[in-house]
Amino acid sequence: MYVLIWGGAAVTLFSLVGMLWCIAKVRNARNANLPDDELRLVMAQILPRNLAALLLSAIGLMMVVVGILLS
Length: 71
Prior knowledge:
The chain is mainly α. The protein has one domain. Helices cover 92% and strands 0% of the residues. Helix 1 packs antiparallel against helix 2.
């Protein structure tokens, strides 16, 4: 079950990197003083990636919990 625990931790860490990337992209877009329409377009492109990273994080944490419960 250690494989499940460490695999889940790796998936969670990978998704955390993805969320930090999304934060950096949005911060860069906001600091670029883009017009409102272009800023909305950037946000619309980043939102699905952010939600995917959040889902991946939840799955990774579930893997960790299941691994702990089974060990």
